[in-house]
Amino acid sequence: MALKNPWGGFRDIEWRKLWGRQDYANFLLTACIIVAVIVVTLVATPHTVPYYLWDARISYPIGSELDTIPSWVALFAPLMMLLLTVGVGELVASKRTHASITAAASSFVYFFLDGSFIMGLLLSQVFKVMVGRLRPNFLARCQPDVPEGLVFTFSNITSAIGNPEIQYPCTNPDHDQVDEGRLAFPSGHTSICFNLAVYASGYLIWVAHWRQPALPHRLSFWQEFRSDLVNVLAKAWMLGMLCFAWGVGISRIIDYQHDPSDVVGGALVGTMIALVYLLRAIPRWKRVLEAESGSARAMASSGDVEAPLGGSAKQHGMPGSSEVV
């Protein structure tokens, strides 16, 4: 009797098992975050800070915005990078650690839908509203009502600094554009890009160095060279993702949307959330795999619990092990 090949094609994926193994508590959290982002974006009003007509930091023209990297590219490109990274990591690099195509697809869905960038987006929006920092082109958005022939002197400048309420009101009828000018810190585009780039890079480092234990025997020269070449290509891919994230941040500066500190703040927020999500996802990864030699409860009762990174060959389902997790 011919045995069915567990590593068949896409049509051989057992979708019921795949979705039955996912982290639905995390899916629920992601759904709540999406609702919170929508509420904050539509309802919350940014904090109002005083502005001064002579402040050169907010005097850049809005008409000269270049939109160097469009918003859809800043989101779509990192998502595709994460998709490709996790896809290659689960279906190619870590193929021998999976018992079947269903197990590999389950791991792929688990990591790709972890939702770290959604949390980063929420925190960025909340911080923007709380801080209310002015964009470099705020005065062009505001279009303040300046009396004709007004001349600034040292005396009225210093008096205005001591009395922030002395400022000229905005005349732009597009209040949304004015409010958007108060949402500079941190940079949301930079936060999302760094979140996805750091998450994908951390995942790739784990796959390449800790997920599979080192082989006990020494490889031949060409095997070593091929392994090193793949490692170098993976490093180049990680650097490319991080450079793209920095490129998005730089584009926000040269397009007069953010100051450098806004971009740095966005990068820190995105990186922080990515590390938190990744350090939670990796230890829980085995929960989505198919245990063909017994139920998860039986494994737990026998003491075969989740292994730390870089565990033994038996824990990782390597060839020669008596158990596949």
Structure overview:
This protein has 325 residues and is mainly alpha-helical. The chain contains twelve helices and no strands. Helix 2 runs parallel beside helix 5, helix 3 runs antiparallel to helix 4 and helix 5 packs antiparallel against helix 9.
Low-confidence stretches: 291-325
Largest sheet: none
The H-and-E topology, N to C, reads as: HHHHHHHHHHHH
**What percent of residues are in strands?**
under 5%
What class do helices, strands and sheet pairing give? mainly alpha
- Cα end-to-end separation: 26 Å
Number of domains: 1
Approximate shape: elongated
What is the tally of helical segments? 12
User: Helix amount, in percent?
Assistant: 55-70%
Give the overall pLDDT as a whole number: 82
User: What is the radius of gyration computed over CA atoms, rounded to a whole number of angstroms?
Assistant: 26 Å
Q: What's the count of strands? A: 0
Produce a short descriptive summary.
The chain is an all-alpha fold and about 325 residues long. The chain has helices at about 15-20, 25-45, 70-95, 100-110, 115-130, 140, 155-160, 175-180, 190-210, 220-255, 260-280, 295-300.
Q: How do the helices and strands line up, and which of them pair or pack?
A:
Layout lengths: L14 H6 L3 H20 L27 H23 L7 H12 L3 H16 L6 H5 L11 H9 L12 H6 L7 H22 L11 H34 L5 H22 L14 H6 L24
